[in-house]
Amino acid sequence: xxxxxxxxxxxxxxxxxxxxxxxxxxxxxxxxxxxxxxxxxxxxxxxxxxxxxxxxxxxxxxxxxxxxxxxxxxxxxxxxxxxxxxxxxxxxxxxxxxxxxxxxxxxxxxxxxxxxxxxxxxxxxxxxxxxxxxxxxxxxxxxxxxxxxxxxxxxxxxxxxxxxxxxxxxxxxxxxxxxxxxxxxxxxxxxxxxxxxxxxxxxxxxxxxxxxxxxxxxxxxxx
Length: 223
What we know:
- It is a single chain.
- The protein is 80% helix and 0% strand.
- It has one domain (29-222).
- The longest helix is centred in the C-terminal third of the chain and has 28 residues, at 151-178.
- It has 223 residues and is an all-alpha fold.
- Helix 2 crosses helix 4 (89-113) and helix 2 packs parallel to helix 8.
């Protein structure tokens, strides 16, 4: 009787060990896309633009100094982000804010320091972003942000985010400054473009993944 009881009590322990030794659950590293997601994203975008201009013009660091400082801070935060096992709001959104600054500075350096026309930088960033998406899809067979659950996918995700900010900055400056439309009219145009994407998604069946990434690019110049 004692032997039977010991065997019975040992079974749950063995089951527990089997469960604990099984594969660890994979957690998505990106928040759910809700209205709050887009509000915070636009605010992070605005902070990125303002911080880049403030440090460049008011703090006297210059574009090069600001670029080095912000890139170093972004690298540190991304190391923390990659080492987390699940979505952490503070770390994630700090990374978005910093990558917004760095993406802005990449575009500004090309335009202000190197004299690259906005038409050229906008085209180049669009091509680079397309290349990132192609390699991402070829490796992972998905561009969905609902499955950012591996180091590879997260690497592609943050690389894509960086170039959406760079592209959005260049495109926003091209429309508002080079085309001489002004900031308010340009903001209205980008707002209408975002509304058109939302309408195409909800009413015309535009793919959710592409709807997300198009809107993600457009919210940068809007901010």
